[in-house]
Amino acid sequence: AQKVTQAQTEISVVEKEDVTLDCVYETRDTTYYLFWYKQPPSGELVFLIRRNSFDEQNEISGRYSWNFQKSTSSFNFTITASQVVDSAVYFCALSDPNAGGTSYGKLTFGQGTILTVHP
Amino acid sequence: DTEVTQTPKHLVMGMTNKKSLKCEQHMGHRAMYWYKQKAKKPPELMFVYSYEKLSINESVPSRFSPECPNSSLLNLHLHALQPEDSALYLCASRIQGSGELFFGEGSRLTVL
Q1: Alpha-carbon span B78 to B27, nearest angstrom
Q2: Is B93 exposed, middle or buried (CB count within 10 Å of its CB: 0-12, 13-18, 19+)?
Q3: How far apart are CA B38 and CA A44, in angstroms?
Q4: Residue of A25, A33, A107, A116 to mutate, testing the B interface (most B Cβ within 10 Å of its Cβ)
Q5: Cβ proximity of A6 and A22 under 8 Å
Q6: Is A113 at the interface with chain B, CB within 8 A?
Q7: Contact (CB, 8 A) for B32 and B3
Q8: I need a labelling partner for A59 at 20 to 30 A (CA). Which of A37, B13, B54, B92 fits?
Q9: Burial class for B106, CB neighbours closer than 10 Å (0-12, 13-18, 19+)
């Protein structure tokens, strides 16, 4: 069975601080995708990044960066110089490549981390 | 703005009512999903449609009835719901072969 653990339930920082959200996953599959989604108060889940299990290259997108380490089954997300607009719930998710013929379409979500950035 | 549109954004219904949630996308995605999200919890998969055919039903009670009339539309028909069914219902779509789901803003349902 697949499992995603986000150990940090809530994080509170002051604007301009750097913050790292942890994600640890469990899967028996050798091929899978990992994702991060952001859910602001409006409710929509906003896709941030997808990482293929074969690609361990770290990625940076503006103030966001991701550190994927297959050896420790971790896919951590760092926000540099946080801003108030970063306040949201962040979900890490793992795809199931064998779900009903719709490969990679079924996501297992972590419990989410509530990030609050104070001015 | 999201390219997956859900209506209505808010819905209040009684336990004897029949209502429907609607989802529309024009990105050409052939896989569409319904997820249910309770407060302070992650989304949980309910149904998956692939090429307009139901491919996954995660043991959802029959009071929830999905329908995919065409490749752009996905409906969720609601009948005889319970108060515990109150939640945010999220629709999503995905390009076949790709991994990421694109979500709508959700329909927040309250059952009285």
Answers
A1: 26
A2: buried
A3: 14
A4: A107
A5: yes
A6: no
A7: no
A8: B92
A9: buried
Cα–Cα distance between B68 and B71 in angstroms, integer? 7
Identity of the residue in B55, B94, B102 whose CB atom sits nearest the CB atom of A100: B55
Kind of pairing, strands B107-111 and B10-13?
parallel
Chain B CB contacts of A42 below 8 Å? 105
Q: At A71, is the secondary structure helix, strand, or coil? A: helix
Partners of residue B78 on adjacent β-strands: B19, B64
At A43 the pLDDT is: 85
Pairing of strands A33-39, A46-52: antiparallel
Which tens digit of pLDDT belongs to each residue from A84-98? 999 999 999 998 766
**A56-109 confidence digits (pLDDT tens):** 888 888 999 999 999 999 999 999 999 999 999 999 999 876 654 455 567 899
Tokens 């490969």 locate to A103
Distance from CA of B68 to the nearest CA of A (A): 16
Taking a C-beta distance cutoff of 8 angstroms, is the pair B34, B20 a contact? no
Torsion of CA B51, B57, B63, B69, to 10 degrees: 0
